[in-house]
Amino acid sequence: MKPNFSLRLRIFNLNCWGIPYLSKHRGDRMKRLGDLLNMESFDLALLEEVWSEQDFQRLRQKLLPAYPAAHYFRSGVIGSGLCVFSKHPIQEFTQHVYTLNGYPYMIHHGDWFCGKAVGLLVLHLSGLVLNAYVTHLHAEYNRQKDVYLTHRVAQAWELAQFIHHTSKKADVVLLCGDLNLHPKDLGCRLLKECTGLHDAYHETRDFKGSEEGCTMVPENCYVSQRELEPFPFGIRIDYVLYKAVSGFYISCKTLRTTTGHDPHSGTPLSDHEALMATLCVRHSPPQHTPDPTQGPAERSRLISVLKEAWTELDLGVAQARWWATFAGYVIGLGLLLLALLCALAAGGGVREVAILLWTPSVGVLLGAGAVYLFHMQEAKGLSRARAELQHVLGRAREAQDLGLESQPALLLGQQEGDGAEEQ
Amino acid sequence: MKPNFSLRLRIFNLNCWGIPYLSKHRGDRMKRLGDLLNMESFDLALLEEVWSEQDFQRLRQKLLPAYPAAHYFRSGVIGSGLCVFSKHPIQEFTQHVYTLNGYPYMIHHGDWFCGKAVGLLVLHLSGLVLNAYVTHLHAEYNRQKDVYLTHRVAQAWELAQFIHHTSKKADVVLLCGDLNLHPKDLGCRLLKECTGLHDAYHETRDFKGSEEGCTMVPENCYVSQRELEPFPFGIRIDYVLYKAVSGFYISCKTLRTTTGHDPHSGTPLSDHEALMATLCVRHSPPQHTPDPTQGPAERSRLISVLKEAWTELDLGVAQARWWATFAGYVIGLGLLLLALLCALAAGGGVREVAILLWTPSVGVLLGAGAVYLFHMQEAKGLSRARAELQHVLGRAREAQDLGLESQPALLLGQQEGDGAEEQ
């Protein structure tokens, strides 16, 4: 690669709020999204919440001349909602579906049915290997009493792990999506500290858009004003994150967001705001001087966030086991009740009542069985994440004890060490 | 790394048949397995079907001095059954749980509850990066009418993809496990052609063990003789597969299998045979001469197996959709029946019969709902694998048309190309 190598990348990200039958003006908004993408001609458009594959196919037809490559990530019962349109050929793609993603009995929230995932695209641009990730984490329905907090932390951890293990040969890593995490939330800090990804909003010197870079703003007519009450400017939960590895340097030249309106016609494209970033990748000679941003302070910040996440996951494991045990007791009681009802039905007397109670009893039994299985699986999934995290925490502590200068990504286990681990 | 670098790796693999309450002499066999591993001192022991975490913990205690590092891969309701013991520190580990793994209503087979997975360990050995994978695919219960064939093909594909995306910086890739695939089965060919992995049994010049390298043999007293009837020597479904990337050369010096007996005490360690391989990794200067094993013949073999797998997955998608549609009709009929029963119960007359029929009707409705959701998810999972496979097939055909000399692993999308794809 030439020493004066330079590459400009224009990136678009939007959570499209494309729920069939439920999202207002979906068809019109999708049409205008297609118009905007055609007009602006980004290198890569990463979309979330395109729940209908027909919407994707329509967009694909419309965008074919400007974005010859596209992919829709399928998963779960409904789908992941993730898709991507690219000006450049996609060399490879794959996806990882998060192990934990809410509860099947929370039907009104629906996340469990979606199969929330992270999609990966590998692009080769003028000899540079770009790994672009698009994701959508579990929604937050109640910030005060967030029953999905542990799942979101586990998802952030899996996301960091997936990026780490699949980007080892990438020159540039890009992550876009709706993380459903505020910038200072545990999951967001965990992700950033573990991967070393930089936040375009913090890095750019040229930002134009909503106040404080918010991606759900009260000015947007599709947003529930009641939910945003505690946040006068709105919330920032959609991100453009990036990093370059040794030999390359990446910076965010400009970052724009929509501000509750379509940039052209006035009505919003979605209930979220779109992010439009211009990134610049340059060749940079390998540096042998220690990076002042990777000192002991950063290491202890990583250890601190890992400890915090470990505690959260540990609580989650205990809670999942409690639910599984509770469901186990209900199964036992349900079986007793059924035996009693059979005896009553056979003996006459309150026969009709006994028969009438059969349906709810069998229902309770089956329901408890499903709850038992689900929470056993949840406990296993959280234990897995906790074990992985504990391993990384052990390595980070070793590095701290040795006073090593190591990059956050390296603390995900890449450095040499001698300690045996238990997981 | 020194030009005369050489590393000897002793690998052990066994499907331990460790089902609590069901597997015969489990405790005794696990004890003897521990003794054998301690005596032989392998570099890496990769185990499958260690279903009880207590068994793992007992082994761990026993093996701690000789194998200071260990990991148990947790997933699903029961677990993945996979674990590993290592003489060397484990730098990193992660896992991928297969999207499709049988049917929840096939309770007697139980695979769905296990969360079958592939586990990855990254080891740094004298500066060499070794990615070791351990896996266990869905069992084959009826070879003549194999209802799990599509799932196993999808699992083989996901396994190949996982290895491809996570081993880009590895010097040596090792895959051990119970693939539940005969050497010429579609899944096995797909895995080998896509990853470029070599089969220790075919590569070594020094093999000692069961006839034709079989890993389930009629001499083993735990094996069902009836199931092995069509195979006089047994079947080969457990493997040690490996490859080295540019700069290294790997060969299998010796391969041993047990032959239906414990090598020391006479009774078998499991219903499967153990594999013991000695691999030798040497430094090899980068070769610029084309590799004669990667010619047009290999390319067309890859294309042929990809086409075959695509057809199998396509059939699977159609079948999954058929089941989802069928379940949809049953749901509709169930709702009608429930409404009718409500009317009959309210109207008197056959009231008791109507009430009695409530339970099975609700049961059928809930069951059909679950079947619908499951097969929708199955169709999405198979469509995903089909799309990924189609992309790789497209690239392989492009390479064939261009007459490029490319390695199988490269055909998983690494080479530069211009074609837009649809998935």
TrEMBL record, chains A, B:
GO terms for MF: metal ion binding; sphingomyelin phosphodiesterase activity
Q: Which UniProt keywords apply?
A: Hydrolase, Lipid metabolism, Magnesium, Membrane, Metal-binding, Sphingolipid metabolism, Transmembrane, Transmembrane helix
The record's InterPro entries line, in alphabetical order, gives:
Endo/exonu/phosph_ase_sf (IPR036691), Endo/exonuclease/phosphatase (IPR005135), Sph/SMPD2-like (IPR038772)
Q: What class of enzyme is it?
A: hydrolase
**Pathway membership, UniProt:** Lipid metabolism; sphingolipid metabolism; Sphingolipid metabolism
What membrane topology does the annotation report for this chain? Multi-pass membrane protein
Record-listed E.C. numbers: 3.1.4.12
Major site of localization recorded for this protein: membrane
Query: Among the record's GO biological process terms, what is one?
Result: sphingolipid metabolic process
Domain Endonuclease/exonuclease/phosphatase positions: 14-272
GO cellular-component terms in the record?
A: membrane
Q: Reaction catalysed by this chain?
A: 1-O-hexadecyl-sn-glycero-3-phosphocholine + H2O = 1-O-hexadecyl-sn-glycerol + phosphocholine + H(+); an N-(acyl)-sphingosylphosphocholine + H2O = an N-acyl-sphingoid base + phosphocholine + H(+); 1-O-octadecyl-sn-glycero-3-phosphocholine + H2O = 1-O-octadecyl-sn-glycerol + phosphocholine + H(+); 1-hexadecanoyl-sn-glycero-3-phosphocholine + H2O = 1-hexadecanoyl-sn-glycerol + phosphocholine + H(+)
What subcellular locations does the record give? Answer: Membrane
Q: Enumerate the cofactors the protein uses.
A: Mg(2+)
Q: Does this entry carry the keyword Flavoprotein?
A: no
Spans through the membrane = 326-347, 353-374
Pfam families referenced in this protein's UniProt entry, alphabetically: Exo_endo_phos
Mind telling me which Gene3D superfamilies this protein's record contains?
Endonuclease/exonuclease/phosphatase
PANTHER family, per database record: PHOSPHODIESTERASE, PUTATIVE-RELATED, SPHINGOMYELINASE FAMILY MEMBER
Q: What family is this protein classified in?
A: Belongs to the neutral sphingomyelinase family.
Name used for this protein in its record = Sphingomyelin phosphodiesterase 2
Which organism does this sequence originate in?
Canis lupus familiaris (Dog)
